[in-house]
Write a sequence for this structure.
């Protein structure tokens, strides 16, 4: 039987966001997501701890039964020496074999792609959340904007109604 210490448990303890691809959820329909570890060099980890990374042009793909992250920009570590890393190098993602098989079967269908959604530290380890995505059409984007605008108007109206009381 577990003993209650009286402290509030936080499910996000040890979770620190580094970079987020906000544009991905606007440009794509996200079908499924996975959390993957990354094989990094020491200077990459130090640059990430400084909070510097960009997922804007990144994507993932499967090659020889392994998942690789491409075109994610982690700038060189400023105090690094000749051992510094290349900013846009290919990085291997660490996933279970079953997850890789699922990714392979889903991503081989036409129109689907793997994109990084967020990059974060979880309990001291660098993780990336990748999503299986299909591109949105222009009318889908307009509908999303209209829905968000309608929700914003409803919030304004509710706040004004509350203030009048």
């Amino acid at each position: 039987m577990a003993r209650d210490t009286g402290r509030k448990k936080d499910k996000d303890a040890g979770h620190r966001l580094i970079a987020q691809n906000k544009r991905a959820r606007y440009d794509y329909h996200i079908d499924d997501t996975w959390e993957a570890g990354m094989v990094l060099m020491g200077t990459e980890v130090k640059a990430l701890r400084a909070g510097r990374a960009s997922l804007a042009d990144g994507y993932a793909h499967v090659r020889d039964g392994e998942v690789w992250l491409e075109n994610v920009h982690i700038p060189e570590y400023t105090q690094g020496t000749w051992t510094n890393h290349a900013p846009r190098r290919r990085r291997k993602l660490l996933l279970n074999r079953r997850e890789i098989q699922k990714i392979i079967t889903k991503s081989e269908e036409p129109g689907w792609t793997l994109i990084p959604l967020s990059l974060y530290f979880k309990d001291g380890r660098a993780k990336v959340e990748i999503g299986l995505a299909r591109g949105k059409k222009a009318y889908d984007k307009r509908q999303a904007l209209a829905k968000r605008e309608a929700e914003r108007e409803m919030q304004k109206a509710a706040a004004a109604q509350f203030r009048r009381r």
